[in-house]
Structure formats: C-alpha cells, structure tokens
Amino acid sequence: MKIHKIAIRRFKSIREVLLPGHATDQTLDDLIILIGRNSSGKSNLLEALDYFFREFDESFERSIGSVNPELWHGRQEADPIEWDVTLQLEPREFSMLLGNDFLPLFENAENRNQVSLLRRIVATPQDMRWQTTELKIGAIELARDAKALAPEEISLALGGQTPVPANLVQVAFSNLSGLLRAQFKYIGAARDSVQPPPSFGNRASIIMPTTLASINNLAQGTTPEMRRKWGSLRQKMETTLPNRERVESKVGQLYLQDEPLPATGGGAQSELALTHDIETGPPIIAVEEPENHLHPELIKKTLSYFQSVTTGSNSKQLFVATHSPFFVDSSNISGIIALVWDGQETKARQIGTKDALRTALYDIGARPSDIFFADLVLIVEGESDKIAFQNWARTLKVPLEEIHAGVVPASRVLKNPM
Prior knowledge:
Layout: E1 2-11, E2 14-19, E3 31-35, H1 42-54, E4 61-65, E5 81-88, H2 91-102, E6 114-123, E7 128-137, E8 140-144, E9 147-148, H3 151-157, H4 168-181, E10 184-187, H5 209-219, H6 224-240, E11 247-250, E12 253-256, E13 259-260, H7 266-279, E14 284-288, H8 296-309, E15 317-322, E16 336-341, E17 346-350, H9 354-363, H10 368-372, E18 376-380, H11 383-395, E19 405-409, H12 410-415
Parallel strand pairs: 3-15, 3-16, 10-14, 14-15, 18-19
Antiparallel strand pairs: 1-2, 1-5, 4-7, 5-6, 6-7, 7-8, 8-9, 11-12, 12-13, 16-17
Helix pairs in contact: 2-4, 6-7
C-alpha cells in the first residue's frame, strides 16, 4: 500500500496542505523528504498521518468524547478537520479488501486498486466525532455523506449487470479498517530510551527495550524462516553502521564488533534501531529527524539506505521530516517538499526546480560551507589537479583553510547531492 495523494485541512498549524500539490495527474514519490525549520509544521503533518491510520475504524461515525481545541487550526472548531486520501493497494491487499465473494464485482472497474477516503473530526454540541464521509474504489462510490450507498446505486455504477449484496459496504469497511491500522508506523524524534546504568561504570543502551528484545529474538531464532529474516536484517544493519561493524547476539546481549552494544556510540545505536524499525515495519513509515546522533557522513549513508528501501520490488514509502541539508537529494527533486510557517499557517511547497531547492536550503539556514565545508569553492577537473592547487597554495603561502576556501574535483560535484 502507498499513499498517492493526501490533503489535510484545519489540523493544528495546517490550514490546508495538499500533497503532492494541485497537479491532478501527479502522485507522491516513495521517498518524501519534508524539509523545514523548527516549528514549521513537519511534526504536525506526520502526526496527522498517524491519526488517519491509527484511528481508522469500520463505523461511519463514532464519538471520541472531548478533544483539545488546539487540534483545530486557529482553534476554530466550526469546520471539521479533514483527511482526503487516495491509496494505491497491491493486488493482494485489494483481494483482502473485498474477499473472494465480492472481488468479481470489480473485475472490470477502472483503477480498482485505488481507494479514496474522506475522513473528518467534527465538533457537535454534544461531543467530537470521527466520520468517514466518502469511500470510493476506483471511480465507484460505496459511501457518501457518511452513509453507505444503496446496493442498487452501486450496481448501476458497476454496469448494472450484477446485483450487489446488501453487506458489500459493511464488509469492505471492516476489511479496510484492519488493513489501514497495520500499514503505517510513526517513528518520532524522541525515540531514545532513558534508563539507569545497570551497574557503576557501565552504560545502558539508548535503544528502546522492545526494539532490543525484537532484535535478540530474531538473532536467536532457530527456524529456517527466522534465520533468513535475521540474516537479511543483520546485513542491512551492518551496511548502515558507521564502520560496517559486525552485529552479533551472544546470550541475549547485542555486540558490535565484539563490543557490548551499550558501550558503543549513540550514532551506531541509533542507526541499528532505525534500520530495525524500518526493515520490520509496515509499507508506509514516517521518520522524524533521523539525523539525531549522526554526523554528516553517516547522514549521507542513511539517505542512501532510505533510497534503497524505497526502490525495487517490495519497496516501502517513507515520509522523512528533517532540517538537515544532507537529506536533500537534488536528483530526486520531485520527492522534496519544503514546509514553511508564514506566521499564520504551515504551507507546503513542492520543490520543482534547482532554484526552489536553493531557496529551501537557505530557508533552513544552510550555506555553501555546510555542503562543501568551504565558503569559497574552486572546482577543478580531477584529483591530481586538486593536489596541485593545494601544493601551489602552500608554496604561495595562501592559507586555504583560514579563508574557508576549498578545492573540489568536478567528479565530486557531480556526485554530491547538493
């Protein structure tokens, strides 16, 4: 399952955000980088996604009691908070949605693997209520105005050749509810475990105990399937670690290159946990500030890992919220969305050009020195030219480092995401 389009309205700092924008024929990439300053609304957008998936249920309407008015943009509860979402289902998921009994009804339906939903939180005089206002499979409406359509109306939309059972919408809603709640994971910025040291002079791991237990359970598994899963996970974890350390589990304790995990650095532990959560997670994952604990080179390695996870067969869809320029890849401009707080609301700007990318980077305070580690960059043809210019500078007593100047081969400029 992937999110093709989403519109969020009146949620916290968001008055209206449309992803991927107003173009009707455009869909979201599998790797979406949300870049913006602190308090620009990145967390609110990811939280809105989490609400949509986590709170979905099979009823058209249900009470959720009292809700903090801060959930509404500008605390204006008169208009509902809305999620307008188009999802692309895999064939297996579409079969799960309808079941064998109803699948033949949609055999010839156009775009049948697309599901469109309009969900709302509505304030009433009595309480706050979730509503599922609209449900479509392709272009076929199943629900409108928070009510199931009559079987005769659905049958007519399908061509009118086959009667539609009265429980079609109920079954579809029930199956969709189970599907959606299992499709999304939100990995927040505050993901470190805070535990007292086990004994004097020893550290406690910053990885959450549940994550450590999951990794150890896989590592100690004895069935062929568990061994296969552990081999795949370990290979991915070792690829993303700072020095490609070997990961092992000995008597329920994780080791990196024969060093107990709690004794290793925060960056290595953070990468280990993040890789585990993504590899074992659902198809759609939101990651907030993955740069935590990571130095620039490791951030670039993490970006490469994200790119590998979101390409090829069985790829996932990642929403990455960051204010680090090192997660920006100019070769994938369509997947970069800049979030800006204009003093009244969060606005989303899809990056469509290199100029727009440059503006987004300057907006978060990035400078050339953050990318090339120099304020003045001399681009030369190759590595030998770089060495020659550096030698000439020393001979002529030109202090390149002191004037924040750098010599960069053209090949590196072409490879550098900035």
